[in-house]
Amino acid sequence: MVNRERPHLFILPEDKEDNNLVDGFLLHPRIDPKQIQTLPFSRGWTNVRDEFEKDHIGEMRKWRERRMILLIDFDRREDRFTEMIRVVPEDLRERTFIFGASHEPEEIRRDTGRSVEEIGESLADECVSGSLDLWNHPMIAHNRPEFDRLCRSMREFLILR
Known about the structure:
Elements: E1 8-13, H1 16-27, E2 36-38, H2 45-62, E3 66-71, H3 80-85, E4 96-99, H4 105-112, H5 116-129, H6 144-158
Parallel strand pairs: 1-2, 1-3, 3-4
């Protein structure tokens, strides 16, 4: 459980594959798992959206140090980001991040020949090192603006020295 008085990150994944991606991210030895809480997956992007709106907006306003990742599959729909950001109030946009594969994490797994957990760990490694090999993958590259915002917001408390 995270210390809510200190900077921390909640992650709300859409499904089991997204949850496995987070598990891999947390395996990286320089990512501080005590600062991250992965919530149970929501079983669908609309459930992520609705759960965020119903359960997390008030909590984020209460806990000013909370950042939140909404982790969804974009299912090749370019409007999915717009649909998600629409429920994020203006005062929380700086602390709310929307990430996801352009289709599904399974496609990235097939394309790279890595498990979803290995992909998560590689993404964490690139966060730590500043390299952008996998973050530039065609199925993930659309996340770069969110990735850049996330790094600026969390580098100080999320990455162990």
